[in-house]
Amino acid sequence: MKIKEQCPINRIILIGNGFDLAHGLRTSYRDFINWLWNGVGTSCGTTNAPSFENNFVKISVPGQQMLSRVFLTGKQPYTYNKVKEVIKDQEGIISFTIKNKFLEYISEINDNVGWVDIENAYYQKLKECIKAHQDEKERHQAVEKLNREFEDIKNALEDYLPKYTEKQRVEYPDHVGDCIIEDFRYTVFITMGQEVLNNYEWRYLQQLKAAQETGSDTLTEWQVELLEQSKDMTQKDITDILNKKYLELMQVHPRRILFLNFNYTKTDSPYHGYVRSWSSSEPDSIYIHGLLNDKDNPIIFGYGDELDENYKELERANDNLFLQNIKSVRYLFTNNYTRLSSFVESALYQVYIFGHSCGNSDRTLLHYLFEHPNCVSIKPFYYKNGDGQDNYMDIASNITRAFNDKHALRTKVVNHSDCEALPQKH
Length: 426
Prior knowledge:
This protein has helices at 17-22, 29-46, 67-70, 80-89, 101-113, 118-132, 136-163, 174-180, 191-214, 221-229, 235-250, 272-276, 311-316, 327-330, 336-346, 363-371, 392-401, 406-412; strands at residues 9-15, 51-53, 57-60, 95-98, 257-261, 284-287, 348-354, 375-381. With 426 residues, the protein is an alpha/beta fold. The chain has a 5-stranded parallel β-sheet with strand order 6-5-1-7-8, with helices on both faces. A hairpin with a 3-residue loop joins β2 (51-53) and β3. α6 runs antiparallel to α7 (136-163). The chain is elongated and about 100 Å long.
């Protein structure tokens, strides 16, 4: 027998780039930057002209020589550092100019550190424009140039992503779907969520008793056992027994599931079928940062940390160019944020984090989700590498920065021992 009404707690599946990577899609910023520089190197190594130029670089050789004759091709696939090595090997012969200084900045970080958060790098450069220029005209020109370079990066990213998402066959393992619809666990809820679950379980027991007394339904062995144990017990004693032994057997699922996707891809959509398999409520997806090739939901590529102590300086600059790529402004161009707010305000909810680092570039939105009174649990699914090490510490540290109320942080975030790895494509 199943209870007639679903538990009045929802679940948000918060999806970041790690979710796409777990499905084998090459959509990381590192992949993108390496693709961009490999395109530069490959073009230089194959052109019959004396120069190569695009929005980012200009590379040339003197006279009527062919660039391909002096541009070594043995360093493929090219990266930023490999392109520089070729230039250095041919010092005095090849002229090399990086026209997009923002690309140079993020490429240095990517190749020397091993990864880069482009959106965070953009915000750092915005703050530098404030500090470096006291004159309003010079400051305006500096941020105008930065935004133009950032727009070129965004356009290149929109060109890159379809090549590695739309034509690639993606595998959707069942164990990912199982995680999405898994039962609630009492121990990972704050008190408010536990009370709602307790009331739900109490109603469940009353329905079992009515079914037993009227013979209107056939009870399973564990349901008969539960009724026998619960005789003459208080509600608290009964819910303690339920949570320790019977909660999983009750199959207590969320009432509604929302996929909150921070990517520009629909990798989550095939998992809607898992939700429909047990729920009468239709699952929903909000692509909060837009979708590729969708004029009604254009991609948002920028920064979203209004909690940062320096953010007010951008507003005080009284120059709208400083706010051109701030996510809160961009959210106003669609109804995505309004739809998210409607879901958040409607009922209690649990957050599952699938492949999102919870970094500062989304801190404003995450702060709203995590500190909202209706949020009763936050469960990160970490990445585990081949050595058995995981990145739970990194995710938890980033989540910390999204909280002003540190007590709420400690009670809402599920501890490491109750978390698990995000299932990967095998």
